[in-house]
Give the backbone structure.
Amino acid sequence: MQVNPTESIPANAPVVLGSVKVQPLFSRRLIGAVVVFGVAMALLVAIATTVGLWAGRQEAISGAEAVTRNLARSLTESVERSISSMDVTLASVADLAAEQGMAAPRPDLRAAVAQRLTFIPYLRQILVVRADGAVLFDSANQAEGRSIDLAALLAEHARLPRPLVIGVPVDGRFIGGSGRGPGHKTIPVSRAIRAADGEVVGLVIGAVNPEYFVSSFQGIEVESGAHVHLWRFDGLMLAGAGGLNDPHQGRGWDDPLFSRYLKESEMGTFLGPGGDGVTWITSYRTTLSWPLVVSVGISLDTALESWRHSVELIAWPVAVVTLIVLGLTAAMAAMLRNRGRDEARLRLSDMVLSNVSNGVTIAEAGRQDLPLIYVNPAFERITGYSAQSALGRNARFLHEFDPAQEGLDHIRAALAEGKPVSVELRNQRADGTLFWNHLSLSPVRGPHGTVTHWVGVQSDITQQEEARAALAKAYDDVAHYSEDLERFSFVLAHHLQEPARQMRLQAQVLLQRMEDHPESGAQQPAQLIIHAAKRLVEMLRDVQAYLAVERQPVTGGIASSESALSAAVNRFVNPEVTGPVEVVRGLLPRAGIPQKRLDDLFEILIENAVRFRSPQRPLRLWVGAEPHTDGWLFRVEDNGIGIDSGYHDRVFVALERLHSGTAYGGTGIGLAIARKIVEAAGGRIWVESDGTSGSAFLFTLPMTPGGVV
């Protein structure tokens, strides 16, 4: 419908939008409601303000409780991880000490302990102490050769069922030193070293730096205002945001947390005095593996600070509510006087809907079967149906020929739930031709929140769908061609090996027959044929292995890197050929990859190191791994001839060789296979080298489930 906005319209005439008659925006009934509104508003504002302020206070308290709960949960998990790391470290040192024997005057633990301490910065010191108090090993060189009193720690080990005992904090930076180091604290943690019969023959003691926890607690206090404490199970504070000057130092036993709440539950949140005259909102959690408690508290004054500021801001506006009510009444009268302007805007809306390029429909939700009550000219142009033939009908007449389309289920669900939805449907025009329709349905809700109308917007996307289908077919054709080409290459590499072997065999036979005729000079060409055939067989075999990486699964499984390294060294390191070889092993964890794939990977890298060893120095290999954000970061390092920086990427390209085949053997495919194995497992591989003193190949592999080493 086209509307001329300059036409004169009677003041009381209804406004028509499409075929929908719209009554004037404000009625007499609304004018009466305005009068009632003016009388009751003052009381309602007062009640609403009081209720809102009280709800805001409760919300502020609830928000503070949520903050303390979340912080307590995350900090407890962090503390558990830290204690677990210390437990694993002390257990490994205890095993090493037990293996070397507690009778030995000085066990050789320095290198092993130093390596472990690099991964746990909050451990200042590790001691190995015999049960009689004799210090056999001290990583900090503070107490080695002396004796310390173990009575209290041995008693706690006998009393507590856990292998790791967290002791009472002591003064000083180190345990067992001559000086106490004023201004410092140390938390002793210990693990028993037991003989075969279970008797405790010594302790491994770690000196934990509480400042590790204090600094993180202070950072949390600065960011959120929360006070954080780490307690022992008996109420002794191990670390707090106040450091050595924390007011809770040494007095947690009379805190309500220990006197009441921990007796009721291992975790929770409570509001009450904290033993220092201040009301606190406190959340606490106990660790699952160790008898430790993390408490996070926010004072009630801090939690309500913003709320009190809001009260001050809201109090004075309430005094002028009456004036606001009068102003609103005057404004409402002015709106009624401007009713004609609002109706003109409705007409302008009708004109806009009539001229947009997308089809627009309006269906009435209050009537049975959702009949269309408005369609714009674009809908008529897209579908071929006139407004007269479409109005009063459900829009399903556009897709009655195919009622099982997937998008229709989404429409039915959206209509049932009163939610907007966008789908793509195949529709039929009035002349019977099909087209693709991108349909967006949106609900229109009335004053009470109920859906009164559904607005639909249609776009003809037939050309886009046809182009998408053609592109998808092209992608399928390319993928099929690529798969056929890969399969053909794999089969070809397999079948070409037999003719190559026959060439080598026949050349060897020919060479034997020529032994009686050396004057012919044919021995050298025969040797070249044998060498070329051998190289062809090796190259075809490596090409087949290269193609097989993607044909067989690489992910999944658990592989031992130590086993893979041993197998590779046994196969390729022959001192009679290579001379003396030193193999240094670092951490060799289990990786989340099939064992066969990890064996292949290590064989390629070890063979590469042996092949490109330097003639001026004995071969030295270093192989190890460390935790990484992508899993395990492995490093295979040698002191060979090195790789120039310009070739660091090219060495992983198939058939790319940096040296002639006569100088160094190989097919140039090994490192390409290594890259395929690593990338198929979800990792990456690269090389580091200065080009003269050796090379280091680094690659990442996924950890096993649970991160088992």
About this structure: Residues 232 and 462 are 70 Å apart (CA to CA). The chain has 18 helices and 25 strands.
